[in-house]
Specification:
- The chain crosses the membrane at residues 16-34, 54-78, 99-118, 130-151, 163-182, 188-210, 244-263, 269-291, 311-331, 351-375, 387-408, 414-435.
- It is a multi-pass membrane protein.
- By secondary structure, this protein is an all-alpha fold.
- It has one domain (2-441).
- 84% of the residues lie in helices and 0% in strands.
- The protein has helices at residues 2-43, 46-70, 72-82, 86-116, 125-157, 162-186, 188-212, 217-220, 229-262, 265-301, 305-332, 334-339, 346-361, 363-378, 383-405, 412-437.
- α9 (229-262) runs antiparallel to α10 (265-301).
- It is globular.
């Protein structure tokens, strides 16, 4: 047993080394939204906080297809690295940027239509009027965000995630400064403009870094004149199911925001506080899932099935440990955490504290299911997981949330209990899928003519 334990400790250590910078980078992106809400809530109050929350949720819902879809590129790059195929890395990088432009423009049209017809979400007049311009500004900011994510796939796939970590942290600081200046002078829309400027900085900074760092030179040298269309098609074919996996989960939470909005402005503000905390831990868990995807992809590229199993299991174990700690924190410090957002509204504080307790219970399920998606992406299994997430969130979570919140009268806590059920179903199904699929993963031998280094 000792050699086996030592083997898993080694894999966990390697996964942790790779995931920490990714986690910090993911956390930095989420903390931009957290700082926006903290500053909006304290400076402008509960109604603007609710408007910003629903606008951000709806915009990110549409953009999540692009964010999730591009994540497949790092797994494909890691497989090419495992095969020592530099030319393939180069072509995947350039194809990923093309896909980012394509998705940002097509999804942007959808976001504009959503802003134009925002009244369909049934919110109060004040929330609707405040949210509409906020959505339009965030829509523009999705363009540099997706370009940043596309370039980031090269860094992550080559196991160089520290690049994006430092850029994201510096962008977070810039966002805080911009928020302080712009919210004071422009009100609610100042927060959205600050996010736009911070994301433009992120895209420009990572592009300059990759161009100037010597490590990336072999992967950026002009490749043979080969059409990128097949790789663009491959990224879309494998990436869009992953994007819709992300969409189905974000959609469940975004529609939950809308349902909570029907209950009143106080419950909407409380929900926004709790969802910010849960989103923070979730995005940190996605860092572990991304590291698991990269390590699984490299093992696939090396034609090493036992390494695929070890990499996937190590990611699951790390996620359980991390989210277990978060669960304890949410259960024991819920009121203190809520008071960081808002103090002068006792009803909002009371509701939010209850929701944070429920969020604590689904931390483990949330962490396991996001790692399940990551390791399945590493073995290029995307279609069935998409169906599983559709069932978990749209067949289980959302209908149950509605029944518990309205016919059974549980209000916002009922919405959250339904989400907990969906997360648990997703975690069980995706974990089973990985270990059931593992013996049948197709590992291709490296052919000599494909190797370019």
């Amino acid at each position: 047993m000792y050699p086996l334990a030592r083997l898993y400790r080694s894999d966990m250590r390697e996964t942790l080394r790779l995931s920490i910078p990714i986690i910090i980078a993911q956390l930095g992106v989420v903390l931009m939204g957290v700082t926006d809400n903290l500053m909006i809530g304290r400076i402008l109050g509960a109604v603007p906080l609710g408007a910003a929350g629903i606008a951000t949720s709806v915009t990110f819902l549409v953009g999540s297809i692009g964010v999730g879809g591009l994540n497949i590129v790092s797994a494909l790059i890691s497989q090419a690295v495992g095969k020592r195929n530099t030319g393939e890395v180069n072509r995947l990088y350039r194809a990923g940027i093309r896909v980012a432009w394509l998705l940002s423009l097509s999804l942007g049209v959808i976001c504009v239509l959503v802003a134009w017809q925002f009244q369909i979400f049934g919110q109060t007049d004040d929330v609707t009027q405040m949210a509409r311009p906020f959505v339009l500004i965030l829509t523009v900011s999705n363009v540099p965000l997706l370009l940043f994510i596309a370039i980031r796939q090269l860094c992550d796939g080559l196991s160089r995630p520290k690049v994006t970590m430092f850029i994201t942290l510096s962008a977070l600081l810039l966002n805080v400064v911009l928020n302080y200046i712009l919210i004071k002078n422009m009100g609610l829309n100042g927060a959205a403009l600050g996010t736009l400027l911070a994301r433009c900085y992120m895209a420009l900074a990572i592009w300059i870094y990759v161009k100037r760092d010597r490590f990336f030179v072999p992967y950026l040298e002009k490749a043979k004149a080969i059409s990128l269309a097949p790789l663009v098609e491959k990224i879309l074919r494998l990436g869009l199911p992953g994007g819709f996996q992300f969409f189905f989960e974000i959609a469940a939470f975004s529609l939950a925001v809308i349902m909570v909005g029907w209950l009143g402005e106080a419950q909407l503000a409380a929900h926004q506080i709790a969802i910010n905390m849960a989103s923070t831990t979730y995005m940190m868990a996605t860092g572990i899932g991304a590291a698991g995807s990269i390590r699984v992809g490299m093992a696939v590229g090396r034609n090493n099935r036992p390494a695929v199993q070890r990499a996937g299991t190590a990611a699951f174990m790390l996620s359980i440990i991390f989210m277990g700690v978060c669960c304890v924190l949410f259960l024991t410090a819920n009121e203190w955490l809520v008071n960081l957002y808002i103090r002068d509204n006792a009803e909002v504080v009371r509701i939010a504290a209850t929701l944070v307790v429920i969020a604590g219970f689904f931390q483990l399920s949330d962490g396991i299911q996001v790692v399940g998606l990551g390791v399945l992406r590493g073995i290029a299994d995307v279609n069935v997981p998409t169906l599983l997430t559709l069932i978990a969130y749209w067949v289980v979570a959302l209908p149950l949330s509605y029944v518990l919140a309205f016919p059974l009268g549980l209000g916002a806590p009922g919405v959250w209990l339904g989400l907990l059920a969906g997360l648990t179903v997703s975690a069980v199904l995706l974990t089973y899928r990985f270990y059931h699929k593992l013996p049948r993963v197709k590992l291709e031998e490296i052919e000599p003519e494909e190797v370019e280094i």
